Amino acid sequence: MSDYRQILVAVDFSDAAVQVCSRARELAVRYGAALTLLHVVEPIIVDPIYDVLPAIPVELEAQQVDAARKRLRELGVSWGIGEERCRLESGSTRGEILRVAEEIGSDLLIMGSHGRSGVSRLLGSTTSAVMHAAACDVLAVRIREPKKQ
């Protein structure tokens, strides 16, 4: 394993983000690497063929971006990551993760994985798609569900 200098952490604001960020911080401390948080907002696509659906307010996407920006900032603060290293992008999740990883010269990309099997596995996931296309190492953090009591 090489020394990592630039770690990109893709987060989705689920409860899994804590596990992903925890693992990322461990590795950043071990290697003295910089951490960058990334969240991607996928655009709301409305197909005109479905004109029977009520119109989606134009400001909905802007509200979605504003809410994501706030949550990303809060997550960064809770993990000691400055606002300048918190990236919010819009577009295809897979495409934006790969683009930002290349743009910042990431040598390790960290994402969560729920370890699904069966049909979900065959259909693939964002983590799987990124793993197969990334130019850098990718760590899929296995998300552990809390034990039921």
Structure description:
- A five-stranded parallel β-sheet has the order 3-2-1-4-5, with helices on both faces.
- With 149 residues, the protein is an alpha/beta fold.
- The protein has one domain (6-142): Rossmann fold.
- 40% of the residues lie in helices and 20% in strands.
- The chain has helices at 16-31, 59-78, 93-103, 119-123, 126-133; strands at 6-10, 34-41, 86-90, 108-113, 137-142.
Strand order of the largest sheet: 3-2-1-4-5
How are helices and strands ordered from N to C?
Answer: EHEHEHEHHE
For the biggest sheet, the summary is: 5 strands, parallel
Radius of gyration: 17 Å
CATH H-level homologous superfamily name = HUPs
CATH class: Alpha Beta
CATH-defined architecture: 3-Layer(aba) Sandwich
CATH topology: Rossmann fold
Determine the mean pLDDT: 83
Count of separate DSSP helical elements: 5
End-to-end distance = 38 Å
Which stretches are low in confidence, meaning pLDDT under 50 for 5 or more residues running? 116-124
